[in-house]
Amino acid sequence: MWTVYSFTGAAILASIIFSLLLFLSIDDDPLMKFLFGGLAVIFELGKFFAWYEVGERKARRNYTGTLSAFTFYAVLAAISIGGSIGGINSATNKAQSEVNVQKSKINAFNMQIAAIEKQIDLNNVAAEKYIQMERIASGVARIQKQNDELRKQQQKLAMERDSIPVVSQGSVLGLIDSLAESLHVTPQAAQLGLVVFLSVLLDFFAAFFVGLIGEENRFRHQYRHNKVLEMAGYNEFDQPKLLEHFDPSTIGTSEVNVHEQEPEEIIVEPEQPKTPYELTVDALSHNKVNCSKRAVSKFLNISTDEVDSIFKQLLDEGIVSKKPNNHYQWHGLTTTTS
Fold first, then answer.
1. Consecutive H or E run containing 320
2. How far apart (Å, rounded) are the C-alpha atoms in residues 5 and 203?
3. Of 4, 103, 321, 326, which is least packed with CB atoms within 10 Å of its CB?
4. Rounded Cα gap, residues 45 and 76, in angstroms
5. Closest to 52 (Cα-Cα) out of 260, 217, 200, 296
């Protein structure tokens, strides 16, 4: 689970950072940056709380609440994905702009070198005309001198161009160029598609792990709840099996006498209804119920105070005993109880 928590925290943190990149660029005022940054964090955290609540309501079979929570999550997720797209796109554009600046500088030098080369070509054409007019000494010598100066200037520009530090292309920019070439689209379209894919993937990645944490928490709660019931001597799966042979209509009535019946002409007075104490002894004697206060209270439908009084009397008479773990043990009747 610590691995799950780590992945979840990293995914949520990355989503918050990318949203902050967009929201913080909206305004340069420090107060507005603080407000928009807080808004981005609230959207991101609220989105994942809403997704966690979707799982909780679905587990409770509250489908109306599940639908409302999912609607709230969908709205926040759309805002979050939009923010992540803007943030990732902004970071990618910044890296691309640095490459473009270097390319622009190199292109500027290339244009100046090309212009000088063009000027040298024009000077050579003029020199040929001077040669045809037999003005080599005056015209051609001057043009050659100009060409020498232009060549020096051209070499100087080439050295400055070559001294510009080369900006290494990042892996993301390389991936964008590769996608653009393979899909035959523009680099801008490839960049947008990659950014949208990464933003949606990041959001669903975090949502998956948030849902996994919710499932784990619900499992732990159910496990601990069942453990407490077992320690109290009550098992909701085993309890009905103890009552299969019990007929509730027999409560308060006399048991069937297994001995010979008296002659019919003898009038037998009806027995008095049994007290809760007698009913408890009868149920425990015939294994109709577990020897625990909870089970007896549920079986006879009597209050907790009455059960406490009955078990106190049973303890005093030695019919039951109390274990070190506070559970009760039935020993049975040693004498006939009226």
1. strand 320-322
2. 16
3. 326
4. 10
5. 217
Buried b or exposed e, range 197-214, using 16+ CB within 10 angstroms: ebbeebbebbbebbbbbb
- Name the pTM for this structure: 0.43
**How many Å from the N-terminal Cα to the C-terminal Cα in the chain?**
60
* Cα gap 126→145, rounded to integer Å: 13
Which tokens go with 237?
């799966």
CA 161 – CA 286 distance, rounded (Å): 103
Per-residue tokens: 57:
């309501």
CA distance 93 to 71: 33
Phi, psi of 328 (to 5 degrees): -100, 145
What token pair was written down for 160? 């400055």
335: tokens are: 């004498």
Q: Going residue by residue through the chain (338 aa), what tens digit of pLDDT does each one get?
A: 788 888 888 888 887 887 777 777 777 788 888 888 888 788 888 888 888 888 888 888 888 888 988 898 888 888 877 777 776 677 676 666 766 777 788 888 888 888 888 888 888 887 777 776 666 666 677 778 888 888 888 888 888 877 776 555 556 667 777 887 888 888 778 877 877 887 788 888 888 888 888 888 888 887 777 776 666 555 555 444 444 555 555 555 444 444 444 455 555 555 667 788 888 888 888 777 888 888 888 888 888 888 888 888 888 888 888 877 777 888 777 644 43
Number of residues that this document lists for the chain? 338
